[in-house]
Amino acid sequence: METMEPILAAHPFCKGLDSRYLKLIVECASRETFTPGQFLCQDNQEARKFYVIHHGRVAVEIYRPRRGAVTIQTLGEGEVLGWLWFDQPYHWHLDARALDLTRVISLEVQCLMDRCNHDHDFGYELMRRYAHHLAVQFRVTKVQLADFYGD
Fold first, then answer.
1. What is the helix (H) or strand (E) element at residue 82, kind and residue range?
2. Domain span at residue 111?
3. I need a surface site. Which of 37, 57, 66, 148 has the fewest CB within 10 A?
């Protein structure tokens, strides 16, 4: 069985990460598999993990009383789910459901936070990657909103 380190090292989120930081992430990591229709997370649940998608697709949904579950984004290999854990309280503000057989490496939030607090250089590197991810997500959301509300 392949260890998680090479999988994470090749993942866009961790690509180019110093090997000592990669080891800190691996210490907080475990493998999980979700079957089609299974939730990775649900709105208002405590956010104890965040997910590095290794295989499969995940529908990110919000619930609207008149429309039910509305898919706002589909994530796949090479993407991450769960940045909301950087701000307390650590609760999900969306639902995420596997569309196919989905394999992830889940990262325990408290474990990562402990390592960030202990090694500020590691915390800075994680925050730098987080900021990049947020900037990309902002651009994606902007395009989606323009498409949704376009003239």
1. none
2. 4-149
3. 66
Work out the burial of residue 96: count CB atoms within 10 Å of its CB; fewer than 13 is exposed, 13-18 middle, 19 or more buried.
buried
* CATH code (residue 33): 2.60.120.10
| Count of domains for the chain | 1
Mean pLDDT of 49-71: 89
Is the pLDDT score of 151 beyond 80? no
Encode 61-86: b = buried (16+ Cβ within 10 Å), e = exposed. beeeeeeeeeeebebeeebbbbebbb
9-58: per-residue pLDDT in tens?
998 889 999 999 999 999 999 999 999 999 999 988 888 898 999 999 99
**Is the pTM here over 0.90, yes or no?**
no
